[in-house]
Amino acid sequence: xxxxxxxxxxxxxxxxxxxxxxxxxxxxxxxxxxxxxxxxxxxxxxxxxxxxxxxxxxxxxxxxxxxxxxxxxxxxxxxxxxxxxxxxxxxxxxxxxxxxxxxxx
Length: 105
Hints:
By secondary structure, the chain is of the alpha+beta class. The chain has helices spanning 36-50, 56-64, 89-99, and strands spanning 5-10, 23-28, 73-78, 81-86.
């Protein structure tokens, strides 16, 4: 899976979910290799580290309704959009310790 790269982005006002999450990590298709497998590996690790997350759209709807949501992370698993969203620097640091910094430098 060395061709499946992840990219870390700080969410600014131009991004959806800015104000809810601080960072987004996404996996892109590179040289016809999908990022789905490394994404699911990272999502499994997030589940084990912080507890089960939810789809980011469901997360925001539940949060706005006053329901309890995972305070650390959420994900997006749509076709060719494999993303994990982190709430703060603390979660991102743990992610980087496990998976390294950007793989697209």
